[in-house]
């Protein structure tokens, strides 16, 4: 549709240009013809040219047709909206949204409105610029309850309601952002702030004031088809004298609040100590009650146990008595058995002693007989040996000296002497030996007898 609009505009413009060119050509030829008439020569004079006034006029009139048709096509840019304004009926109802639209050429026109979010700002904004799109950059001056002037830095974010643009165009002064929004915003704040003190506006009820102002501005502008999205109270400028006094007051209040906080903390600490003491007391009471209950339960348990323990004890006592009587009877029986066993043991020991004495007598007798036999045998053997030795000595008398020498100490030296009786020592020894031999033989004879 945009291409059609431009095509029609270009076609009409081209037709007007063609009409103008046609007239210019005819007029140029006419001027040349007059020059030739003024300076006659040998050449023939051409016929006078004809100016095509009717053709040019018709072409020019025909060119207005596409131009008028192109004027009936309007384009609403993005972020904008429009309303139709009739030359006969005024503002027509309805809204033209972004895009191409047909209107009645020459009889209707459009009024464009910016439907994007807009800002109304008082005071310097955060990026350092003064004012906003339609602000002067000055703080909004209002009076508080005390009569002091307070400067407010306000930002109102709003947009035009596209559904009510016909109402805005027909009834409200234009432009709306300069003629309607600033007065309503200023009147709302100046109507609301005098109900509060400077301190309330600055500190204690700042959010309450902002919210009420936002509701009031939103309600007033909504009647005129303006949608308020947000009302911001960015800054508050206090009077210099009040600011200094407020700083001192805030400092004192801060100190007072600090003291109150410290007092509250100390009270809480005292309360905590009291609660801890009460808790300790309650724990001790509970512990004592628990111990008492435990003792009571133990006593009850012991009493209940005694009901079963006493019969058991009685049975144990009776059993002990029976066991004692049994042990007594067993002891008596054991004593009697021991006495009988002792008597029997004594009799057996006496019999054993008698038997032992008899056996000892028999043994001694047998030993005596054996010893007598041994002595007899030994005496007989000695007699036989002595007889043999006597026979040998008779045959070899010198052996006596050798035997004597061997029986004497080994430290003596053996000396052999003749046996002819010349040496008294040898004769005395031999004599004593003969006498001893004779005595032993006589004892053996008596023993055998």
In this structure, how is the largest beta sheet organized? 4 strands, antiparallel
Range of strand content: 5-15%
Shape: elongated
Q: What is the strand tally?
A: 9
Unreliable parts:
128-135, 421-425
Describe this protein with a few key phrases.
single chain, 449 residues, alpha+beta, four-stranded antiparallel beta sheet, three-stranded antiparallel beta sheet, 10 helices, 66% helix, elongated
Characterization of this structure:
The protein is of the alpha+beta class. 66% of the residues lie in helices and 12% in strands. The chain is built from 10 helices and 9 strands. The protein has helices at 2-38, 53-71, 165-171, 176-179, 181-192, 198-204, 206-223, 240-395, 398-407, 424-448, and strands at residues 73-76, 80-86, 90-91, 99-102, 108-114, 118-121, 140-143, 149-160, 226-237. The strands form 3 sheets. Strands 6, 7, 8 and 9 form a 4-stranded antiparallel beta sheet that branches. Strands 3-2-5 form a 3-stranded antiparallel beta sheet. A hairpin with a 3-residue loop joins strand 2 (80-86) and strand 3. Helix 1 (2-38) runs antiparallel to helix 2 (53-71) and helix 5 (181-192) runs antiparallel to helix 7 (206-223). It is elongated. The N and C termini lie far apart (192 Å). The model is unreliable at 128-135 and 421-425 (pLDDT under 50).
Give a brief description.
This protein is of the alpha+beta class and 449 residues long. Helices cover 66% and strands 12% of the residues.
Write the layout of secondary structure elements.
Layout: H1 2-38, H2 53-71, E1 73-76, E2 80-86, E3 90-91, E4 99-102, E5 108-114, E6 118-121, E7 140-143, E8 149-160, H3 165-171, H4 176-179, H5 181-192, H6 198-204, H7 206-223, E9 226-237, H8 240-395, H9 398-407, H10 424-448
Antiparallel strand pairs: 1-4, 2-3, 2-5, 6-8, 7-8, 8-9
């Amino acid at each position: 549709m945009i291409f059609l609009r431009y095509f029609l505009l270009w076609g009409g413009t081209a037709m007007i240009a063609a009409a103008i060119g046609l007239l210019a050509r005819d007029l140029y030829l006419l001027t040349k013809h007059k020059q030739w008439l003024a300076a006659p020569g040998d050449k023939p004079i051409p016929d006078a040219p004809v100016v095509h006034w009717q053709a040019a006029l018709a072409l020019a009139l025909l060119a207005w047709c596409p131009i008028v048709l192109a004027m009936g096509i309007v384009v609403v840019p993005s972020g904008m909206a429009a309303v139709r304004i009739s030359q006969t009926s005024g503002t027509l109802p309805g809204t033209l949204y972004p895009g191409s639209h047909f209107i009645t050429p020459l009889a209707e026109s459009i009024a464009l409105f910016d439907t994007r979010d807009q800002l109304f700002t008082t005071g310097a904004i955060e990026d350092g610029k003064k004012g906003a799109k339609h602000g002067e950059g000055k703080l909004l001056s209002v009076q508080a309850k005390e009569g002091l002037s307070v400067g407010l830095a306000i930002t109102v974010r709003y947009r035009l309601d596209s559904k009510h643009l016909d109402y805005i165009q027909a009834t409200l002064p234009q432009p709306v952002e300069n003629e309607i929004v600033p007065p309503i915003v200023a009147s709302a704040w100046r109507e609301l702030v005098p109900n509060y003190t400077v301190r309330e506006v600055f500190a204690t009820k700042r959010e309450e004031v902002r919210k009420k102002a936002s509701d009031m501005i939103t309600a007033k502008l909504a009647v005129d088809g303006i949608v308020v999205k947000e009302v911001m109270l960015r800054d508050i400028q206090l009077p210099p004298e009040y600011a200094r006094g407020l700083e001192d007051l805030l400092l004192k209040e801060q100190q007072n609040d600090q003291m109150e906080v410290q007092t509250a903390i100390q009270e809480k600490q005292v309360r905590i100590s009291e609660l801890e003491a009460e808790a300790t007391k309650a724990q001790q009471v509970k512990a004592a009650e628990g111990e008492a209950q435990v003792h009571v339960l133990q006593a009850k348990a012991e009493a209940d146990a005694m009901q079963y323990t006493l019969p058991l004890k009685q049975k144990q006592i009776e059993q002990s008595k029976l066991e004692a009587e049994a042990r007594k009877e067993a002891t008596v029986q054991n004593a009697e058995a021991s006495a009988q066993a002792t008597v029997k043991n004594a009799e057996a020991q006496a019999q054993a002693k008698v038997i032992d004495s008899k056996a000892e007598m028999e043994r001694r007798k047998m030993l005596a007989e054996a010893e007598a036999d041994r002595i007899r045998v030994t005496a007989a053997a000695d007699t036989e040996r002595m007889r043999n030795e006597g026979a040998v000595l008779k045959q070899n008398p010198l052996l006596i000296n050798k035997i004597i020498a061997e029986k004497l100490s080994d430290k003596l030296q053996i000396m052999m002497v003749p046996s002819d009786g010349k040496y008294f020592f040898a004769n005395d020894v031999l004599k004593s030996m003969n006498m001893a031999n004779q005595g032993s033989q006589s004892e053996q004879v008596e023993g055998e007898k």
